[in-house]
Every structure is written in structure tokens, then in C-alpha cells.
Design brief:
It is a single chain. Helix content is about 15%, strand content about 40%. By secondary structure, the chain is an alpha+beta fold. Helix 1 crosses helix 2.
């Protein structure tokens, strides 16, 4: 199992290259003992960056291993890994914004069921519960802005089943293996771009400004 350094916000590290195999599409699949690279998953794109100066093009989870794809081979042994910091921070802002929207709508008894934190495609989907309260885009935007201004600090913990959970301040925790901002103010300008209710399903789409990218 690859040690997931990214869960501790590490973006640069000395790593051990365990395996480097050519793939059918001409790339190389690289396995590390530990990695600062977040793999694609949980609605979040993968980190990019470099290992010993070689560009990391994609990172994916395969079974218990995190596989890094590159166009060039990397020598086995110790290497230096560096995550693209701008990309990491931007995706962390998008992911945390999605959590915030989920938190706010849960207070009105809407159950989040599906998330997508990809740039230009960010959305959180909810299912109506027995006591769900109907809201609107303007109300949701206002409440989110208030939370962002509050600068609630991110906290991580393990639940009883051993899964990592992420929460901000006193807000409820969500099980999550993604990357996040240190406090909600780092989200910057959050814009709720659409609020669509169809029968008992609600889809909230959103974006964050490029000012901190």
C-alpha cells in the first residue's frame, strides 16, 4: 500500500521509486513507496508535478497502490517528488467549497448523494428528505459567503471505522480522502452558478474565482 503523504498536506518529499513499467500507450507506470500526489478520485482530479524532473501526467488509484504515469522512465531508488502547487491549491479550494455547500444544505435536511469537484463542472447533488426545506440560489450564496468570512479552520479525524473525516470548525464531518484548504477563507470568491430542483433531486453547481489559483 502506498503511503499517502498528501493526506498530511505534504507537497514535496523524498520518495522511493519501487517500480517503473512501460504501458501499452507508450507511457510509464511508476509505483512509489510514499507519495505527495493525490490520485484522481472522490470527484477530484489528480495532482500533477514532477518526479526527479520528469513530468507526472496523471495519478490513479489501483487496488491499494497509487500509480503515477509519465512519458519517461524513472530510475528505481530515492527520488525527489514535487506537486504542482497552484493546481493543488485550486483543486483544494473547489473541494472545500463543495463540502461547504453540502454542509449548508444539510442544515435544511437535504441529503448529499453525489459530488463533482472538477473545474468548470463542479456540482453537488442532493435528495429531498421528509423535512427538507426549499431554498434558493441567493439564500445559499449568502450563507456560504458568511461561512467563508468566518475563517473556520479545517480539522481531520478518524471515525470509528478507521476512515478519515474532514470538517470545518464545528460543522459536521464528511468522510473524505481529498485535499482541502486550511480554513474556509482560502476558498476565496465562491459563486453558486445554478440551483436546479427536479422532482426530489436538487443539483447545485458552483465555481471559485481564479484569484488564488
Amino acid at each position: 500500500m502506498t503511503q499517502a503523504l498528501y493526506l498530511s498536506d505534504i507537497t514535496q518529499a523524498e520518495v522511493e521509486v519501487l517500480q517503473c513499467d512501460p504501458t501499452e500507450d507508450g507511457r510509464f507506470a511508476i509505483q512509489l513507496a510514499q507519495t505527495p500526489f493525490h490520485p484522481q478520485g472522490g470527484g477530484q482530479p489528480s495532482d500533477l508535478g514532477k518526479i526527479n524532473g520528469v513530468d507526472v501526467l496523471h495519478v490513479a488509484m489501483q487496488d491499494d497502490q497509487i500509480i503515477h504515469y509519465a512519458n519517461h522512465a524513472i530510475t528505481l531508488g530515492l527520488a525527489q517528488a514535487q506537486v504542482d502547487l497552484d493546481r493543488r491549491h485550486y483543486h483544494s479550494r473547489l473541494h472545500s467549497a463543495g463540502h461547504l455547500i453540502g454542509h449548508v444544505m444539510q442544515t435544511f435536511d437535504w441529503q448529499p448523494t453525489k459530488v463533482q469537484h472538477w473545474p468548470d463542472e463542479c456540482k453537488v447533488q442532493f435528495v429531498k428528505q421528509d423535512h427538507s426545506e426549499d431554498q434558493d440560489l441567493e439564500t445559499l450564496q449568502h450563507i456560504c459567503n458568511q461561512y467563508i468570512s468566518s475563517r473556520l479552520v479545517r480539522l481531520t479525524q478518524q471515525n470509528a471505522d478507521g476512515y478519515r473525516e474532514v470538517r470545518f470548525g464545528t460543522l459536521p464531518a464528511f468522510a473524505c480522502g481529498g485535499t482541502h484548504v486550511q480554513n474556509l477563507s482560502e476558498i476565496g470568491t465562491l459563486k453558486i452558478t445554478s440551483y436546479k430542483l427536479k422532482k426530489d433531486k436538487l443539483t447545485v453547481s458552483y465555481s471559485v474565482s481564479d484569484e488564488h489559483q
